[in-house]
Amino acid sequence: MLFPASDDDVPFDDAPRILLFTGKGGTGKTTCAAATAQHAARQGHKTLVLSSDPAHSLADALDQELGPEAREVRDRLFAQEVDLYYSMKKHWGHMRELMLTVFRWQGVDQIAAEELAALPGMNEGSVLLWLEEALREADYDLIVVDSAPTGETLTLLTLPQVTQWWLAKAFPFQKMAVKSLGFGVRKATGIPLDKGYEELEVIFEKLERVQQVLATPSTTSIRLVTNPEKMVIEEARRAFTYLQLYGYGVDSVIVNRVLPEDEVPADSFFEGYVESQREYLEEIEQSFRPLPILQVPHLGEEVFGAERLGRIGDAMYAERNPTDVFYDEPTFTVQEDGDAYVLNLRLAFATEADVDVRQLGDQLVVQVANQRSNVILPNFLSYYHMTSAALEEGWLRVRFTPDGEASSN
C-alpha cells in the first residue's frame, strides 16, 4: 500500500467518481451496483457500470445484452462485462504472444496454449486496465465497478501493490537482462521476450496510476454489500478490516434483502426469520458504526430490468445523491509525538492475535490473519525505527523513534 494519495496526487485530470461494490457471493452486489448506476444516470450523471465478476450477471440484472466493450443501455448509462480473452488481445497483446510462442515452442497444442496463456492475475489486471482507459478518456461522471466476491476483490485491489514492488525491486534488473538478451532470443527462437517486457513495463505504469486513484478517498469509495445473516456479516467484517489494511475507503454498508416487518403477518412461516433479522440488523449497526447503513428491502421477486432496479435504487438512496462520499474518515494517519512519530492504521475487527508488524527498510509489513500489506512509509519515516506496535480500539498504532531498535509487536 502506498501512503494514501491526496487529491493533488491523482494522475488524471477531472477523474470521475468511482464506486466499487463488493461482498460475499450471493449477497446481491451486482443488483446494488446496477441499481446505483441506473439511479445516478437518472439524476443526470453519465455513468459506466463495469463488471469484473466472471459470473457475468450484470447483463441479467440490466436485462440487456452486454459485450466486452462499453455500450449504452439506457440514457446516460453505459455497461461493460470484462472478458478475459478479449482483454488479453487488447491490453496484453505482446505478453499473450510471448506466452503462446513459449508454449508452442514446447509442443503444446494451440487450444491448450490459449488457456495456459491466461496467467493468474490477468483477469484482475484487465479490469484495472479497462478502468485506466475509462479514466484516461475522462468521458464519465461516475464509474461503478461490480466486482467479484470478496476474495477476488482483494486480489484485484492488491495487484497494483504487487506491481509496484516489481517496478521498484525486481523489474529493473530483469529489464536490463531482457534488453541485453531479448533481441537475440527472439531471433534464435521466435519468442518475443523483449516486446513482452516492454509491454509489461507500460502495463505496470498504468496499474500504478490506477492505484493512486483507487487510494484517493474523495475519488473512490468502496460499498460493502451484506445480508442480515451471521456468516455474511462475519465475512463483511473481515473484508472491512482487510480493505482498511490496504488503505481503501469504505463509505457505507448496504444491507440487501431486508424482509419488511410490517408485511409479515404474525404466526407466519417468516416470523422467526424476522426476529433473527432484527437482531442481525442491530449487530450490523453496532459493528460498523459510524458508517452509514443503507437498507434495501426484499422485493419478493427477482430483481432485473429498469423498473425493479429503479425501486431498489430509490429504496437504497432515498434523498441521497449516490455519487456523494458518505463517510471519509482516514484509515491511515501519522502524528508527531515529541521526537517520535506514531503511524495509525485503521484495523476494525482485528485482534492482537491476528496482527504481526515488522519494519523492513522503507516498508512496514503488516499481516492480519492471512492477508499481508507492505505499507510504503513516508520518506522521513524510513530513517526512523519501529519501537512498538499495539492495537487500540480498532487502530494499529506503530511508534517510530530516531534511535530506537527495530522490533515486531
TrEMBL record:
Domain ArsA HSP20-like as annotated: residue spans: 338-400
Query: Could you say which EC number(s) this protein's record lists?
Result: 7.3.2.7
Q: Translocase: present as a keyword of the record? A: yes
Write the protein's name: arsenite-transporting ATPase
Name the CDD domains on file: ArsA
* InterPro entries, A to Z: ArsA/GET3_ATPase-like (IPR025723), ArsA_HSP20-like (IPR040612), ATPase_ArsA/GET3 (IPR016300), HSP20-like_chaperone (IPR008978), P-loop_NTPase (IPR027417)
Molecular function (Gene Ontology), one example? ATP hydrolysis activity
Q: Which reaction does it catalyse?
A: arsenite(in) + ATP + H2O = arsenite(out) + ADP + phosphate + H(+)
Which key words tag this protein in UniProt?
A: Arsenical resistance, ATP-binding, Nucleotide-binding, Translocase
Identify the Pfam families for this entry. Answer: ArsA_ATPase, ArsA_HSP20
Q: Which domain of life is it from?
A: Bacteria
Q: Does the keyword Translocase apply?
A: yes
Q: Which residues form the ArsA/GET3 Anion-transporting ATPase-like domain?
A: 17-317
Q: Give the protein family.
A: Belongs to the arsA ATPase family.
General function of this protein: Anion-transporting ATPase. Catalyzes the extrusion of arsenite.
Top EC class per UniProt? translocase
